[in-house]
Amino acid sequence: FAEKYNAPEATLHERPLVPEFYVSFPSRILYSWVTPLILRGYRKPLTEKDCWELPMSERTVTVVDQVRNYMKGLLLNYFTDLNKPKWLGVFYASLLSIVVFCQIILLRAYFHCQFLVGLQFRSAITGLIYRKSLKLSNASKQETTTGEIVNLMAIDASRFAEVTQHIHVLWSGPLQLLIALILLYREMKFSIIPGVTLLFIMIPTNLYLHQMQKKLTFKQMKIKDQRIKMMSEILNGIRVLKLYAWEVAFIRSITRIRDKELEYIRKKAILTTISNILWTFTPIL
Which domain, by its residues, includes 64? Predict the structure, then answer.
């Protein structure tokens, strides 16, 4: 249960085998056998030599040879019903292919059109912000930093481009949910009530997580404004900075600001992970 297996030793010109198949059961369940590779990637960029080699039993050639003879004709024999006419199967297969093909073509056309609309939105907003920044009064220039203007043009304007691709989910989402509930009710009747209840409980939970992410994003943007402002000041006064040898002091200041920004990014990543877990496991529950 907790003992390691003896892994074959690699030769001088071979990479070591992946330890997943030779570690203890707790290590395999907790994935602690990956920790050395993660630490190695943290210290330096990973190369092919740093990665493990798959054992021969897990390689594609071996798996294909093992499965080919066993699976040959098994699926066809299972799904084939000799009592039904062949044209019916051909019709269903052709219809499915046509539907999938039309879905791909129409979705690509839809996303392309929405992407162009988003680009127009972003270009218009960026141009308006740029024109407004040129007409700012002296008092407004004192209150508005360069970083804030850059964030408005680079990040906030890009959000309009992203929203246009998913704006129709506002009406298609409830419609799809309604159709799915109707179909489930036809098949399962009132047995769907616990699952639907859990689904609606998760809605305020996801909204709460979204609000927390929104607050962290706002704090991250403020820190980012400070970093961009300081970088602009450093670049504008680089001669004075080099003359008085203030490089180390400014590097520490920028690093301190960047560490705060990374802290907010990590917290956002944790919330995103929790949200994705809930999104994935809610239908299963």
Answer: 19-71
